[in-house]
Amino acid sequence: MKMTFRWFGVDNDSVTLDQIKQIPGMTGVVGSLFDVPVGEVWPMEKIKALKETVVNAGLELEVIESVNIHEDIKLGLPTRDHYIENYKQTLRHLSKFGIKVVCYNFMPVFDWTRSDLAKVLPDGSNVLSYDHNKIQTIDPNKMLEDMDANSNGYDLPGWEPERLKTIKTLFTAYQDVNEEKLLENLGYFLKEIIPVAEQCDIKMAIHPDDPPWSIFGLPRIVTSKERLEQIVNLVDSPYNGLTLCSGCLGANPNNNIPEIVRYFGGKGRIHFAHVRNVKIYEGGNFDEASHLSSDGSLDMFEIMKAYHDIDFKGYIRPDHGRMIWGEKARPGYGLYDRALGVTYLNGVWEAIGKMKKQK
Ligand SMILES: [Mn+2]
């Protein structure tokens, strides 16, 4: 595995590349361009500048998270072809700068959703939290205001104000799109994109929906092993792969993460691993947690062992962390707890490898 760390750019992140480089075992960052509107072609010069900044800091940039999908593609509107052509061009541009994996998601309207961006835990740290009842009863517009007010001044990726201005129109547009239609629209997109991804040697890696169930009555399809199976079968190519996010899928206790890792990893379809823990409560509620197994509901040893058993050679990153030690950062994306997460995951990985050799 190659350990990486998500980074939002010089003007967009409280964490610096120098800090990331000093985390033991770190090989590179997972980057993105946040100033290109969704659906437009990523300009070469902007990709080049990002690549140079990262490489000059002694780190690699081989994974992009995310190149977001225009809503017209998810809705299956006639205008989608224009946006799909732009997406292909973005892939061609990214390939010129050594990008190997592009993470993306196919969630309608909203990206990841939480009811609280800073729930205080008994130890004084705070975490992202999801209360199903709150989400069921909240007005989506009110939720947007709350997200904006509590994001420590950062635009949250996937929650860009520009895109969300049109939220009422989008809700109306999705009235005719059920899960099967959404899956069909994903298939249309993949059949167009994957041949280009193959030419560019860029592995496409879809990220699960977060949380992995429908919210606000909108369809969601990247939610379970069965759905992932349908998705990888939409186009049978290793370039049509997965970002396996343990915390997202793991919020539903029916998803057996080690089994899912073994199954799709064995098929060579996992290109990017997001590894984090989550503490699940009754009724679909959950808090994010430190990476440690005993702090959450997922067995991180078993998850890492599954990756080790399939001889995972792809990219991995700690996912969200708690906010600790007084840090002020993007919700979920502080330096300290994610760095602790890296060190913990590396320790588990080393132990698994050495114990296998001693057998
Ligand atoms: Mn994730």
UniProtKB/TrEMBL annotation:
Q: Which GO molecular function annotation, any one, does this entry have? A: ferrous iron binding
Q: Which cofactor does it need?
A: Fe(2+); Mn(2+)
Q: Enzyme class, one word?
A: lyase
SUPFAM superfamilies membership: Xylose isomerase-like
Q: Which pathway, per its entry? A: Carbohydrate metabolism; pentose and glucuronate interconversion
Please name the Pfam families in this protein's record: UxuA (PF03786)
Q: Which UniProt keywords apply?
A: Iron, Lyase, Manganese
Q: EC number(s) of the enzyme? A: 4.2.1.8
The catalysed reaction is: D-mannonate = 2-dehydro-3-deoxy-D-gluconate + H2O
A GO BP entry: D-glucuronate catabolic process
- Which family does the entry's similarity section mention? Belongs to the mannonate dehydratase family.
Q: Which HAMAP family match?
A: UxuA
Q: What does this protein do?
A: Catalyzes the dehydration of D-mannonate.
The protein, known as: Mannonate dehydratase
Q: Which organism is it from?
A: Geosporobacter ferrireducens
Give the classification, highest ranks.
Bacteria, Bacillati, Bacillota, Clostridia, Peptostreptococcales
